């Protein structure tokens, strides 16, 4: 259940730089004919045949329940760690190992983070079973396990540093720690986002120059990028080998500054027409042109600051009431960390509808931008965009009729049916987001 660990452990520590990341058979080779009829037929609305509709609806329902169960289960895991005094035991080991705080963090933090990872591993495994059952994941269990280990190692490195910084700030300024830690964590989150395409992404997937894999697609993307007024040369356009792990589709723009790049999955090249991929990339380009990364940061950074302040106000009462039973001596005790995470995870969950609604708004703007930036470059760009969403929906099993509560709580993109409807009704000649050319 990665969403719990990273939304609570990493997100909690305010690595909230805004990202749009969407995810043992090989996909078809580059240039293969699309495998879905939606890539060539006229689309009037997002629909699925009865068998696919049932699969998409059932899968979406399972994920909805898994999100809810995962949240409750995550809180229960933190509560059990406190109740069973595991955190205090790790603290005692760390203090016996050294009197230096950084060394203590090197002992305490990995032990606690690994304990949380082990507690949540059953949900991780079940989530992967669901993806295999519905044909989205084609990754072998050995490869999946190795990816899980690599993800945990990255989390341990980042988490150990952040935990050390958090308690250093708490010890030096207990009444202002919530603010000073926020000042530290925000730039660190941006730095990690900057390094991600160079350091983290290649640990999980193979990347090759797109120009070598598909020169025609590269030329079309370069034309779209130039029209958008962005600077992403062909040298920063990459093919990603996703097909050995997933049947899903994606193309995205990631990174900041020198690390900014366009990435197209091999599965997308195999199942979408070139014009449809250009629209998807145009949507992603919209996030950059419309400054969504910075707007997202400006939206979420104050929200995280508010959460830190609320936890600062609540943690004293929590430790006064239950701290002695947990063996937690004070706030600057390493063993107080699960209590901090418990409060933060609760706040993040309660605010999730706000963040989801904001994200859906930005994604809608990016859809609009994609229609405008491809208008004139692609014949009948609205129909091409609708076809692209239909292909995405068919392959990724997007539910045509999602539960409204699920959308309210967890959807960070508008439902596919709404996106197709917008593509078919919006006139991209309005040129609201793209300068007229």
Q: Major sheet: size, sense and barrel closure?
A: 4 strands, mixed
Determine the fraction of residues in helical runs and give it as a percent range: 55-70%
Order of SSEs: HHHHHHEHHEEEHHHHHHH
Integer tally of domains: 1
User: Tally of extended strands?
Assistant: 4
What's the shape? elongated
Separation of the first and last Cα atoms: 46 Å
Query: What is the mean pLDDT?
Result: 89
Report the sheet-strand fraction. Answer: under 5%
- Overall structural class, as computed from helix and strand content, comes to mainly alpha
How does this model look, in words?
There is one protein chain. The chain is mainly α and 437 residues long. The protein has one domain. 66% of the residues lie in helices and 4% in strands. It has 15 helices and four strands. It has helices at 2-10, 50-83, 86-97, 101-133, 141-172, 177-199, 210-213, 215-228, 266-271, 274-289, 292-326, 337-374, 381-396, 404-410, 416-425, and strands at residues 207-209, 237-240, 251-254, 261-265. It has a four-stranded mixed beta sheet. The N and C termini lie far apart (46 Å).
């Amino acid at each position: 259940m990665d969403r719990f660990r990273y939304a609570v452990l990493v997100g909690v520590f305010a690595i909230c730089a805004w990202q749009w990341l969407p995810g043992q058979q090989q996909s078809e080779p580059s240039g293969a004919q699309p495998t879905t009829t939606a890539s060539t037929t006229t689309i009037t609305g997002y629909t699925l045949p009865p068998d696919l509709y049932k699969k998409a609806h059932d899968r979406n329902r399972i994920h909805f329940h898994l999100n809810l169960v995962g949240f409750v289960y995550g809180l229960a895991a933190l509560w059990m760690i406190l109740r069973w005094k595991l955190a205090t035991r790790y603290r005692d080991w760390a203090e016996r190992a050294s009197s230096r705080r950084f060394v203590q963090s090197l002992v305490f933090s990995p032990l606690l983070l690994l304990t949380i990872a082990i507690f949540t591993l059953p949900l991780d495994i079940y989530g992967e079973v669901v993806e295999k059952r519905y044909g989205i994941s084609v990754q072998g269990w050995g490869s999946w396990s190795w990816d899980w280990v690599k993800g945990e190692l990255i989390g341990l490195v980042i988490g150990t540093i952040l935990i050390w910084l958090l308690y250093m700030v708490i010890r030096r300024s207990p009444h202002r720690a919530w603010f000073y830690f926020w000042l530290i964590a925000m730039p660190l989150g941006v730095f990690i986002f900057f390094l991600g395409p160079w350091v983290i992404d290649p640990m999980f997937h193979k990347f090759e120059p797109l120009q070598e894999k598909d020169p025609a697609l590269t030329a079309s993307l370069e034309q779209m990028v130039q029209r958008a007024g962005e600077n992403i040369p062909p040298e920063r356009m990459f093919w990603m080998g996703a097909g050995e792990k997933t049947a899903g589709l994606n193309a995205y723009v990631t990174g900041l500054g020198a690390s900014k790049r366009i990435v197209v999955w091999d599965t997308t090249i195999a199942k979408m027409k070139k014009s449809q991929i250009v629209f998807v990339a145009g949507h992603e380009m919209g996030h950059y042109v419309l400054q969504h990364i910075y707007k997202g940061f400006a939206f979420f950074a104050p929200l995280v600051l508010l959460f830190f302040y609320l936890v600062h106000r609540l943690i004293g009462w929590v430790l006064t009431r239950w701290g002695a039973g947990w063996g937690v001596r004070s706030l600057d005790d390493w063993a107080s960390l699960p209590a901090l995470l418990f409060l933060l995870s609760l706040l993040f969950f309660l605010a999730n509808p706000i963040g989801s609604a904001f994200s859906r708004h930005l994604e809608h703007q990016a859809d609009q931008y994609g229609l405008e930036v491809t208008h004139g470059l692609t014949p009948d760009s609205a129909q091409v965009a609708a076809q692209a969403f239909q292909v995405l929906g068919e392959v990724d099993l997007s539910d045509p009729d999602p539960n409204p509560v699920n959308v309210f709580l967890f959807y960070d993109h508008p439902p596919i049916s709404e996106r197709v409807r917008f593509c078919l009704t919006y006139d991209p000649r309005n040129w609201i987001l793209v300068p007229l050319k």
